[in-house]
Amino acid sequence: MKTLRLETTAPFQGLAELVAYDEGLFEKEGIKIEWMDREKGVDKSPQMHITDHKDASRFLSHGKMMEAGQADLYNACEWGNYSRVEKSKVGSRQVGRRSIVTFAALVVRPDSPVQTPQQFANVPIGVPMYSGTHYLCLQMLEGFVPRELIKIGRVPNGSNYRFKMLMDKTIEATTLTEPYISLAEKMGCRVVISAFHHGTEVASDRVDAETYAAFNRARTYCAEKNIPIPESFENNSHKVMWNALLGKGRTLAGAEANGTRLKPKRRNADYESEIKNLSDVVEQAIYESDAVFYYLRS
Fold it and tell me: 10-residue block means of pLDDT along the chain (298 residues)?
C-alpha cells in the first residue's frame, strides 16, 4: 500500500476524490490517502489594498503543504498552477487536468446598482489572487470593460469567506463557486456574469506514472460507473452535490441540477425578513463549509 499525501480539497473542485476516498476506492487501487490541511493558519482577512497579484503570495493555500515537503499532490486552477510551478522550490510539476470543470460567477448584493458587466468599470471587486476565480474574473470582464478599469483587490480563497464579506458590505462584489452561488441567489444576490474554468493537478517527484494512473482509476470509476451514494454515506453534503452532478433527485434548495449549475428556488419577496438571520447562518458555516447545504434545503 503506497501512501499518497493530498492537500485538502473542496467539493466544488475535488468532489470525485472525496467520494472515492469515502467509498474506499483508493485503497482498492493500493493507495492510502492522507489529507494535509492547507488551510491551517491561513490569513482570511480582506486585503483590498493589494491590487497587484505580484504583491501577493502564490502559496498562501494551494501548494503550501507541497512546498513545505508535506504533500505529494494537489489540484487548483490551471492559471494559478502555472505560476506556482514556475516558482516552486521543490520541483513540483503539473501532471494533468483535474476531474472537475469548475463553475464560478461574479456576484453583487441586491442593493448594488450593477446590473450588467459594463457597470463594473472602476468598481472594486474582491478576488482570491492566484485562484481560479481571480483569473476568470479578468477573462469574463475583458470583453466588456477596458483592462485598466477593472479594479480588483485581494480577499481570501474560500467562497464562504467572500460571501460573508459581500453580505457584510465589506466588499461590493466578488467571485463565488457552488454552493455559495445558489445560497447568494436564494438570499437575493445577483449573478452578473458567469463561466466555467479548468483546473490541473500538481505533483511532487514521489508521484510516478503508475501511482497517478491508479489515483485516476479510483476517482474516474465514480463518474464512469455512475456510482450511487448510499444513505449511510457519512458526509451528507458530498452526497447532495454528487447526486446533483449526476442529475439525480432533489438538490440544493430543492432545485433541479443542470450540470454543475444549480438553480435555486425563488426567494421570498420580503428580502429584509429573509436575510435578517443570515449573519448567524454564515457564522455557523464559516468554519464548516459543508454546513451550508443544510441551510439551502427548503
Answer: 91 85 90 92 90 86 91 91 90 89 94 97 96 94 96 94 94 93 91 94 93 90 57 46 43 33 37 44 39 34
Instruction: Give the right CATH number for 103-196+263-296 from 3.40.220.10, 3.40.190.10, 1.20.1290.10, 3.90.550.10.
Output: 3.40.190.10
Q: Residue holding cell 491508479?
A: 214
- Pick the closest to residue 129 from 40, 74, 62, 181 (CA basis): 62
Domain ranges of the chain: 2-42+59-100+198-238, 103-196+263-296
**The CATH number of domain 2-42+59-100+198-238 is 1.20.120.140:** no
Q: Quick count: other Cβ atoms within 10 Å of Cβ 130? A: 25
Q: Whole-prediction pTM value?
A: 0.75
